[in-house]
User: Fold these one by one.
Assistant:
Number 1:
Amino acid sequence: MKEKEPVKKKRKKKKRGPSISTIILIIILLAGIGILLYPSVSDWWNSMHATKAIAGYVTAVEDLSARDKEEAIKAA
């Protein structure tokens, strides 16, 4: 008689999160993108703040009375 072979049970693979190498690659990718975008983003940020500062100075000068302007010119 033939002996039956033991039935192999299929093991289900446990779903794990991403591997450490995947996480490291994602971090390196994000760092690279950040390095490439830094000059453009910083230029935009600084020009936005400079524009606001200039607008504030213009408003302050427009609000000065003629007398204050004359005193500032004499003081200079």
Number 2:
Amino acid sequence: MELYATVVYVVSSELLKILGVQDDIQAKMENAEVMRPEIASFTTGSAILVDDGWLSN
């Protein structure tokens, strides 16, 4: 699951770069980091993410 989360992050980050989306300079997280759990839960189901500790109940 950790590898999957990394792949989702890298693909999201590259897509945002291609689209020209820039991170807010005041933000402590990148946009791709914010998107990663949502994309992963949409594609794998949130139960897997809860079991692996990525999301809470």
